Amino acid sequence: MDDILIELSDNDLEQLARMYERHCKELPYLYSFLQICVKSKKIDMPDFVKVWSPNNCWKIDGTFIASVPNHGHDIILHSFDSSGKNLIEGLSKTKKFKYLRDPARSFTLFYAVDPEFYPKILQLLNEQKHKILSNDASDVWVLNKENATKIQEDNEKVYVKNIQLEDLSVVNNHWPFKYPESEQKLMDLSKLTKGLGVYLKSNNQLISWVVCSRLGQMGALQTLGEYRFKGYAALAVKNMAKTLAEAGFDCCGSVDRGNVASERLLSKLGFKKLRAYHYIAVQNEY
After folding, report:
1. Which domain holds residue 101?
2. pLDDT tens digits for 45-72?
3. For the chain, which end, N or C, has fewer CB atoms within 10 Å of the first or last residue's CB respectively?
């Protein structure tokens, strides 16, 4: 029996990305995510992501459900139909998501769920008797590309460059949310996105960094303990914003509710709070 979710062809995926480009100011992270999906097909990473639409309704209402399955399963979804009718129907009827036990990570993560659909998705998961391991709200902060390209920054003690593959283990080891295959996930993303590191000029040590998330936007931002409060995190963010702007994207990042320090940092750099979204972790138990 055919599944309700129909995979988009490469051409369809490019058309969907163009649809979301028209909404890039209110949904910058979904525009960048779909551009990553398109890029993955062009550089021969066919298994990085699968993008489906319930009964191909994307042509009408932009509804898509994407699966990033390897090294920890992520699900990213959206619709321009605020009722979420096709979105919820697709999730409720599909047989593609089985929440099987996975040595890579103990949960499937619904990533960046819009507040319009969050209550219905949470209700559906509870009705299907899935175990919810976590359910967190974050605020999206954005710096438009026009402002980001104006950034000029230099520092006599450090320099900024793309994070090297050999440094990804450092990034992963200091990430508080790491899991068994998170380093492999970072390596996959490094083929599709940029990660920037702040390095000491004296010995080329990596001391601060920001990497891109699955959405192609700012993800993990960290600074080694002894180098905190010296402006290096801000330097990393400024350079990431400029890098994304040069690629045609507004820069955004998510901040957990109550993380006042990150809010102050982004606000000081000119970021504005845009909207909220949710992360829902579902246990892989079957």
Report:
1. 5-139+278-283
2. 999 999 999 999 999 999 999 999 999 9
3. N
Domain count, the chain: 2
φ and ψ of 69, to 5 deg: -85, -25
Residues 128 and 92: their CA atoms lie apart, in Å, by 9
Q: Does residue 124 sit in the same domain as residue 11?
A: yes
- Is the backbone of residue 47 left (phi > 0), alpha (psi -120 to 50) or beta? alpha
- Which residues pair with residue 137 across a beta bridge? 278
What pTM value is reported for the model? 0.96
Q: 28-42 vs 10-21: helix axis angle to the nearest 10?
A: 160
